[in-house]
């Protein structure tokens, strides 16, 4: 019974009903890995599949602090990716200015060239594929003792400046696990630098 359940979870199969029978038009055996199945069975990961009218499908795949959402569109005999997003739940903070989540989207140009049958969660949601979702620029709170600032999003461009836990920043851009932020000093001067995304998690 356990083997049957695992196979059911790992195989995503979409079919249409025509001429008194079902015909599979798209399937994927690599979207989830076997480790993900173990997590699902231990109740730390949840997933859901829903359909709207038979031509649009949503797959939601949630860890305790992150949710992946993939929207699929049926076109003739294929299933294509319309949208793919990743929502990160941020730590609870004081005040109402900071956001509760950070929403990232997979580059739409990349999605246009993908067929659902040969993608996986890991390949789709690589850091390099993600951008801030449209209109997502918001505020977040530094959540580590020292968050060093960088001129550019790489280790070689580290400055001597840093922010401390509780500092409020404005998020401008996301790039491969780095955030471009604005920070307003007490003297009113703005600093625009890069920080690691871990600084707000």
TrEMBL record:
Signal peptide interval: 1-18
Superkingdom of origin organism: Bacteria
Keyword annotations of the record: Signal
The protein's name: SH3b domain-containing protein
